[in-house]
Design goal:
- This protein has 250 residues and is of the alpha/beta class.
- It has 8 helices and 11 strands.
- It folds into 2 domains: 151 residues, Alpha/beta knot (3-Layer(aba) Sandwich); 68 residues, Trp Operon Repressor, Chain A, CATH 1.10.1270.
- The strands form 4 sheets. The chain has a 5-stranded parallel beta sheet, with helices on both faces. A two-stranded antiparallel sheet has the order 3-4.
- Strand 5, helix 4 and strand 6 form a beta-alpha-beta unit.
- It is elongated.
- The site of 6-chloroguanine has 13 residues, from strand 5.
Amino acid sequence: MKYSICTLFPQLVTPWTEEGLLGRAVEKELISFDVYNLRDFSGNKHNKVDDTPYGGGAGMVIRVDVAARAIEAVKADLGEPDEIILLSPAGEPLTQAMAEELATKDHLCFICGRYEGFDARVEQLVTREVSIGDYVLMGGEVAALTIVEATARLRTEVIGSEESHQQDSFSSGMLDYPEYTRPLTFEGMTVPEVLTSGNHGKVDAWRKEMAVERTKERRPDLLEGATLVSDKETSITKNPNKKNGNKKSD
Ligand code: 6GU
């Protein structure tokens, strides 16, 4: 898996790729990150990447030719990306289903904007435009790294076992059940007895019930997409036509 990231702030992005599971996978050469500084593609001696908007108004707009040269450099160095993703609050909202689709690709290229954004013609240079939620960030870097986090952890070369994310929030269509570890009692708060009962059947049933309860309470919108076999029961079947994050893109 290759990630290339075009940004005005490579020094914000690079450290994220050097720690934890990502850092380890990079060291083992199982995944790679190539971070491109958009300023290197300014095409002028002042390294200026933006200009005032046509039609007037406040703020600056990043030039389309800068993005175009950066994308050409990525292609020349690493080959054609499977996806060139423009990070923008106007993009398609990121979901677990989208992360699952992107995680199957070999090379994802990200274009991160800052300030007011890119010249709209950059949209013609990319394969998709993605937003990470309904709020506005100062730049696309955190959004690009969010997609890196969401996709890399779905790759067995990064995580190792496939099992650990099978039960996750959203990949089951529901929130996770709560987990506990030692100490058994902390400041008067105890661990649910069933977890120390040694009865695996009971533990499984309790966990499923907790997942349903938490989802009903905190994110009832997610349950629209899951089919409850019975109210008290715990089994949930994926509905391929549901409109939330489990929908497989076509
Ligand atoms: Cl991808 N970029 C920016 N600047 N703001 C956002 C976003 C992206 N997604 C949500 N808000």
